[in-house]
Each structure stands twice: as structure tokens, then as C-alpha cells.
Amino acid sequence: MSAKRRRASSTNDSSSSKQTKRTKFTLEHAVAPSVSKSGVVLVTGAGDVGQLGLGSDILEKSRFTLVNLEHDIVDVYAGGMHTVCLTREGKVLTFGCNDEGALGRVTSDKEDSEFTAGEVELPDEVIQISAGDSHTAALLKDGRVFTWGTFRDSHGNMGLTPKGNEKFPYEIFHDQVVVKIASGADHLVCLTAKGEIYTCGCAEQGQLGRTTERGSGRTARSGAGVDQLGKLLYPAPISLKPSLRLHFDDVWAGTYATFAKVAGQNNIYVFGLNNYYQIGLKTSQPQFLPKLSKDFSKYKWKFISGGQHHTLALDENGVTYAIGRKEYGRLGLGAESDDAAELTAIPTLKDKKIVSVCCGSATSFSVTETGDLYGWGMGTVGQLGTGEEEDCFVPTLIKSKQLIDRQVFKVSSGGQHTVILAATANNNKGDTT
Question: Any idea which GO molecular function terms this record carries (predicted)?
């Protein structure tokens, strides 16, 4: 009888543990959006809670309208029912719904102050902003991240921390230098200088990438002494096999999903809601742990933006791709198109050099290198800015008196409103026509 072969012990083999140890890694270049160009802010859509920043008398617009601000603005972000602006000086301005603290400032001392822009007090210069349904985040130039507002799940308000909502900027963790942030509806993603990804917030659709389905809810049973709500709300690294030794150099968030690019590669790892194949996996089940998307990994991406049930992606050649649900025309593939289970280039944009794309909940936008804005998808409250309240099934050039002689260079779409940045030679300061 031959001798039994002994199985190597994984606990005693020191060489094995060395092989799976993550190597030291530092991102050489920041991947945060460019804030080198400033412009004026224009808005369209629903403004019933102040998210248009046009005052309490204007509750809806169907074409883009200028917001009078005293600052040069370098970035804008539309949350669910609020808007965030970043000034050239690195200050943050907010307006819109403040019921759960998403504005990060006091609005009770003056009537209707949430309907106009106000500054958020932060300890240093801000270089990036993001926002979800009821939260806002700011990345400071020294790598610190401050957030305010709240996250929500199927049970309602989760709080921003286990203590509850945070109505003023709160530093979420102190031991990491962050180079980029991204917000979904109810989760926040942070990319660190070490190439690691930290997430916090709601995990019910898998968007945190670090819990099993059973452990994704706030009522899940955890080990003795484990604060389950704190486990979700405090930032922690996504769950990766140590043997992969992965580092990342870019990250994007969809409404209920996350996309992470492997450093120095085209590989994209995804996790979150996939009921319409919007994160590029072949199963319609939610993905709770990071998984390589072969479809997304075929291309070199400049930007990825995810809505509720669809995703837009812009490759390095300026080609725009869509994937996911067709309803309301959000894919831009025509009224007779089916849901897209694979990334599909949008035919009507193929001859245009696109430099930026954006998804709202059920809207889509692209910006050309010449500053033209195209929109498609749901238009029920004027959030496309076409002047009508009809859905658009193909990319439609957005025309407006306010856009004459202005070139759009950034766009962000929220629940029912859209905000853009546009510039001329002098930014048309003081122009209110």
C-alpha cells in the first residue's frame, strides 16, 4: 500500500502567506475630476424643495436657467433632491432639501434659505464633491473626507453613523489618504492613495462589495458584540481574495452599484444591483462581492455613470456605450429597442466626440468636445431641458436661449432635476437673460 500524501498546511506554510500578501502600492496620479475650468451653473427640472436654487417662487423649469452665484464654479453635482457646487476657491455651496441634513448647513434661521445657495463650513480646501439621495460628501486637498446627511435602506433612515443623521460635515475616517470619492443613492465609495477601496452605507443591493447577501441588512445577525449598523456605516475595505493582490486606480458609483478599475489594467470589478444587467454580468441577481465584468473589461474607460437601472460608459476614443433597461428611452437606442444585456454603442452619437457622460435615475446626458449637450430618457418634469415634458428615445440636442454662446463642459442629473456647467470667454457674469 502506498503511503498517504500529506496535504500542506495553509496555517503553517509561511511561504504561502508571503505569496498572498498585498504588495505596497501608491497611486502616482490623482484620478479626481478636473477642476481647472470654471463656468456658470444652469438648472432644469423640478425645484419644489429648492434643488434648482432659483428661489421659492420658481418650482419647475423645462429649459436650462441660469443660477446667479457670486463665485466661479468648477464642479456641480445633483443629488436626489439637492444640488452641490464647488467653487474655484475650494468652497462648497448647497441648495435644496435639507430635511435630513444633506445641505450641511443651518437653514432654519432664515425663511426659504434652502432655495438659494449657501456655503458649507469645512476645515480646508475641497477638491471634489459627490452626492446621493440624502447625503453629500467632500474630499479635501489633504485627502480627508467629510460627509453629511444620511443614508437610507428599505427600512427608512439609516443615519450617517449609528448615532443618526449628521447635519454638519463629519470626518468619516482618519487613517487613510483618499484621492477620489463617488456616491450612489445611499452609499459612498472612497479610493485611497494605496489603491484600496473603502465603502459605507446601504448594502442591500450589494453596492458595498464587502458583505454577503445574508449580512447585507441592518437587522442581520452578526457575531457577539458586533454592531451591525456600525459595520455598514463605518467605511471598510471591499472584500477581495488576498491571492488576487489587486489595487485600483479609478472608481465610479451607480445608483445601486460600484465599478472599480484595476490599476494599470482594463479590468473592471463590479458589485451591486444587476436586475437589468446594468453592471455587465450575465446573471440578473445582485452581486454582493467584487466580480470581474468581462463585458466592461473589454474597453479602456474614461468615465462610467450608473442610473437606477442603466449605465453609460465613455471610452478613451469618445464613444458612448449603454447597457441596462430601455424604459423611457434612457439607453438612447431608439423607441423600438430592447433592454441591452451587453454594452452597446449609441449609433446617433458615433460621429460625435464625446468628452463626458452622466446618468440620472432614468435620464442620460452626453457632452461633446465642442460643448454641445445631448439628453435622452425620462422628461416628465422638464429634467431633460428640452422645453417639453416628453421622453426622448435617442440623444437629442438641448437648445436654449441660455445656451447660446455657451459651451457645456459638465453635467449631473439627480432624481428629477439636472444641473450643468457652461462657459464663454467671460462666463457671462451678471447675465440673467
Answer: guanyl-nucleotide exchange factor activity
pLDDT tens digits, residue range 317-376? 999 999 999 999 999 999 999 999 999 999 999 999 999 999 999 999 999 999 999 999
Which residues, including other chains, have CB under 8 Å from residue 344's CB and lie 6 or more apart? 321, 322, 323, 331, 333
Closest CA to 120 of 70, 164, 159, 170: 170
Instruction: Report CA-CA distances (Å) from 211 to 199, 236, 238, 337.
Output: 11, 11, 8, 35
C-alpha–C-alpha distance, residues 113 and 82, integer Å: 13
DSSP for 28-44 reads SS--SPP----BEEEEE
**DSSP codes joined into one string, 40-66:** EEEEEEE-TTSTT-S-TT--EEEEEEE
pLDDT tens column, 100-112: 999 999 999 899 9
* Residue length of the chain: 433
| Chain centre to alpha carbon of residue 207 | 12
The helix/strand/coil state of 197 is strand
Q: Of 273, 261, 144, 305, give the one whose Cα is nearest residue 202.
A: 273
DSSP letter at 20? H
CA dist 330 and 357 (Å) reads: 13
Q: How far is CA 23 from the centre of its chain?
A: 29
Cell 509561511 identifies what position? 14
Q: Read off φ and ψ for residue 296, nearest 5 degrees.
A: -70, -25
How many CB atoms lie under 10 A from the CB of residue 24? 8
CA distance 50 to 57: 10
Closest CA to 98 of 87, 111, 89: 111
Q: 182-196, pLDDT tens digit by residue?
A: 999 999 999 999 999
CA separation for the pair 96, 395 (Å, rounded): 28
pTM of the predicted protein model: 0.91
Nearest C-alpha neighbor of 108 from the set 189, 167, 161, 38: 167
| Residue 64 falls in which region: left (phi positive, over 0), alpha (psi -120 to 50) or beta | beta
Kindly report the number of other CB atoms within 10 A of residue 72's CB atom.
15
Measured CA to CA, the distance from residue 82 to residue 95 in angstroms comes to 6
Residue spans of beta strands (DSSP E) within 266-415: 268-272, 287-292, 301-306, 310-315, 320-324, 340-345, 354-359, 363-368, 373-377, 392-397, 407-413
Which residue is associated with the grid cell 465609495?
189
Phi first, then psi: what are they for 16, rounded to 5°?
-65, -40
Beta bridge partners of 402: none
